[in-house]
Amino acid sequence: MTDALMAGPQTLETRAPAPTVRPQTEIDRAITDYLQHMGVERGLAANTLAAYRRDLARYASYLARSGRQRPADVTRHDVTGFVQALSDGSDGGSSLGVRSAARTVVAVRGLHKFWALEGITPTDPASDVHPPMPGKRLPKAISVGEVTRILEAVGTDTATGLRDRALLEFLYSTGARISEAVGLDVDDISLHASSLHTSRGAGDSEGPAIVRLFGKGSKERLVPLGSFGARALDAYLVRGRPLLAAKGKGTPALFLNARGGRISRQSAWTILKSAADKANITKDVSPHTLRHSFATHLLEGGADVRVVQELLGHASVTTTQVYTQVTADTLREIYAAAHPRALG
User: Fold this and answer.
1) Can you list the domains of the chain with their CATH numbers?
2) Set 29, 99, 216, 306: catalytic member
3) Active site residue 314
4) Catalytic: 291?
5) Which pLDDT tens digit goes with each residue over 8-58?
6) How does DSSP classify residue 258?
7) Residue 323 annotated in active site
8) Which helix (H) or strand (E) holds 287?
9) For the whole prediction, is pTM greater than 0.85?
10) Secondary structure in 3-state letters for 11-48
11) Helices 287-300 and 265-278, interaxial angle, to 10°?
12) Catalytic site residue from 163, 231, 291, 292
């Protein structure tokens, strides 16, 4: 039933133009079946399901304009034509970026695979149609000097200042993801005496401070914590955290907000942004920038890529190797500027 019929009688002057309603096809009904399958049997999240619904509605409209009425009518040429339409908007829709287009193609491939498995179509015309591949986005790191300026811009004369300095020192010292840092409990760190003093006494324990991080998939890893980070954490634990904890309900969280609860990711981002502003850093800096800088500076200092992989918690070394390209670019720039026969 159209909107005009549902709205009841209207005068000629007030009646709005009735929207063009496309007759429902077998393809539309088969898409509805697929979405129900994904929502009920596959347990797809509501937001993801809504995105699939939008993407496949555009696909159904594209097929309808091409004269396709039944799932079995769709050919590989239709699928590749739709992929092209996603990038250039030739179907009347907006042109999508590589990542958005790739998400839509994934939805289309899943649809056709479902149809083939259910016997709705004899073949899968999308089986060898691949999503567009996004170009590798090189991580953005800032210099050691810029990191130092940010860290030193944080005042430590208040409990929150001690926390902010400890948090930022921790992020840069460990390369932790922001979610890993805010999820830490006090028991997840071990501050050895040798990390808190410039020289060791006879009774001091060996080795650096250690922190236990829980990465993606709750995968646990142990990461050393440098002396600057360890001293900042020690100062926060002794002089800052007790004051913040007194306002809360006894949470084991390491980094606390002003009310004594666990600090949020957004608050951590705001802490870094404020410190960067105080340090007059005009670049776009986020907590992930400190993670990128941690990895880049280690490699520039001669660390092995597989060691950096372990520290970052990457499942595959290929993920870490993107940083080696950044380091190689830096080396090329230095070489070109410094070697007497680099440029001629």
Assistant:
1) 22-117 (1.10.150), 144-337 (1.10.443.10)
2) 216
3) yes
4) yes
5) 444 444 454 444 567 888 999 999 999 999 888 888 788 888 999 999 999
6) T
7) yes
8) helix 287-300
9) no
10) CCCCCCCCCCCCCCCHHHHHHHHHHHHHHHHCCCCHHH
11) 70
12) 291
